[in-house]
Amino acid sequence: MRKVERYPVEGPNALWQVYSTVSRVKAVRNFVFIQLTRYCPSLPLKNWIYRRILGMKVGKHTAFALMVMVDVFFPERITVGNNSIIGYNTTILTHEYLIKEYRLGDVKIGSNVMIGANSTILPGVSIGDHAVVAAGSLVHKDVPAYAFVGGNPMKELRRDEIAVTTGLDDHVSNLLN
User: Fold this and answer.
1) Each residue of 153-163: pLDDT tens digit?
2) What is the value of pTM for the model shown?
3) Does the domain spanning 5-176 belong to CATH 1.10.510.10?
4) Which sequence spans correspond to the domains of the chain?
5) With 0-12 CB in 10 A as exposed, 13-18 as middle and 19+ as buried, what is 100?
């Protein structure tokens, strides 16, 4: 189960009421900087923007590929460990605006994690250290450490605790063969 906070709303759907939960200035500022990072080829510059301007917790040597879309309204609720890769065009959400409520949840991605291209990570999800998320996956629940998951909806395909001794690159190679 995802760990989200629920906030009921009265009146029109929650997205129509977004600016009662997030300031317009913050939303516009975040949008501009997120768009810059989506096209920026410099990994150190991207991580600096994520940390210093957007308030994300990003570990050393973490790489966000081109076109990664982090949550515009609450990016400060995203944590990514050291030496992880977030694949091309992945979306990381920390909010959901629904008809009668909105939900917020922290996203925690561990160290040495590989997220495949075009994946979507929903609010309130934790992804354990050394996990691998296959391309195009919808991550709708927690992913254990050393798990290889994929699909829509996501399913655990394999878990390889031996990766502790062989290293992540060998672990990924073994899973793909």
Assistant:
1) 999 998 876 55
2) 0.89
3) no
4) 5-176
5) exposed
